[in-house]
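step 4 of 6: structure.
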Amino acid sequence: MCGIVGYIGKSEALPVLIEGLKRLEYRGYDSAGIAFQNGKGIEIYKTKGKIKDLVQIIPSQSNVKVGLGHTRWATHGQPSTENAHPHYANGVAIVHNGIIENYREIRTRLMNNGHTFISETDTEVVPHLISCNLRKQQSPREAIFNALKTLKGSYALGILLEDEPDTLYAVRKGSPLVIGIGDGEYYFASDIPALLPYTRRFIFLEDGQICRLNISGVKLEYLEESRPIEIQSVVKEVDIPPSMAEKDGYDHFMLKEIFEQPRAVRDTVNEWIDNPLGLLEEFKLTRQDLVELRRLHIVACGTSYHAGLVGGYLIEKLTRIPVDVHIASEYRYKEPIIEKGTLFISITQSGETADTLAAQREAKRLGAKTITICNVVGSTSAREADAVLYTRAGPEIGVASTKAFTSQLAALSLLGVALGFVKGRLISEEIVTIKRQLSKIPMLIERVLKEDNYIRELASSLIYAKDFLYLGRGINYPIALEGALKLKEISYIHAEGYPAGEMKHGPIALIEDGLPVVVLAPVDELFKKTLSNIEEVIARGGRVIAVTDEPAYLKDKVQDVIKVPSTYPILSPLINVVPLQLLAYHIAVMKGCNVDQPRNLAKSVTVE
Ligand code: AGP
């Protein structure tokens, strides 16, 4: 997944483009480039590496009023200057986020017609196609339309034409693209954090829409037809302060976002805590829907999938409705069985994850009502689902998801309460108790965050470990998975999460002297079983790091105990995950890893 940005207006374009790319760097960071009109034609500067490397090669240039930029996560063609965007051909410069699936046949056809290519990318066919059409005297809009209708796959494109020096085009199909509306200046970007310093008025482009940005204004229409779309009817005011997309004094976005979790959970909970049943109205679930509700499918990827697993435990406990939790890339190809009374829920921070979107579309095609739990207003998932439950975590920039995850758990808790009530499984006293406990979670997370110094100290003794095991039971088994994912994706240390009860079925063979084994050990009805697992690990030389609300039970057995506050058992994942986030963060930082932009990863996987 990549980041694209464009600007046209009365200010200097280069600083806007560079700042925008810096704010989009979490989307891809192996190479970058910009193209701009210099009054005589298009200039392009691009390089392998990061935005800071790009800044070094751009000459200080003034009076540049139109330009576009790109920061890349390589899909086709290794990270290199040649493969970096923008790509150019015969007066057409473009930046692209997405995948063109039929680019090979197009490239072969163009090469047979005398075109030469510089890069290995799929993207480079686009400027060639558009420039061919322009040479046939097609208008820019026709040339773009006729070029794009030959493409299969997904794209968010920024287009700059040599012959239209005061115009940009932005068009999307399957990859996110927002238009920023300023005061006599206009922007496009893959995501709103890039534009928050300049505007809070956005148009979220829909698939098949093209926007012409000119110094006199923007024009929006569908590519297929020239029916213009009234701008005021689609402009949305987004209430996110620019600081939400800045580090605010923290060393990394990830650390800031870990410490933002009390606010993020509070904002997510407060929207519905007084009226959880209002959620079901928001979901447009009729009484009949609720009476017929027989099964839930929860579908997601990565950390969001782990949230789904917690949600599955929690909703089954509160409603006694079966919940099947699936990894999206599996669900979309398994011919899912959607019976009458099945409710489909996708969980996606970005709202742009290709596999999750495909699963959601498949469920919808099969007749399921689709709900998405999503953190980005106007994202594809939010626009395509039948209903949206927004988490209020704010922009999550760190590639490793933290505040979005706990906000997803909060949202799922509210949903469980609402469904539990309407299914007659929860009496009002229980609802009051859960709501009260849920309202306390932000304060309890604050208390866990106060353990940060101890956790950093603990981390310093673990940075040379080559493998970790994470163990949990019941609703905390997914937290073992999540703790392992956090560690491996930012520190590159191999880690596996397992149900603690599985140890005897294989993983116990891994235990050897000093192997770190992180154990979620809340004192709940499974504690005694977990204690046996802890003793099995210790007996074989493993080093247990326990997360528990009752250290006294472990003090003469376990050396490293992270104390967390007690809470309602089904809410304990919201608390227990926080020390694991901090542990992973500190180990990664001490190992010198790039915590916010881990190797090979991107914030949102918008390609399969
Ligand atoms: C988690 O830390 C990762 N960044 C990744 O697993 C992520 O959760 C996954 O790609 C799903 O993203 P989404 O929530 O935006 O759909």
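step 5 of 6: annotate
 - The chain is about 35% helix and 25% strand.
 - The radius of gyration is 25 Å.
step 6 of 6: archive
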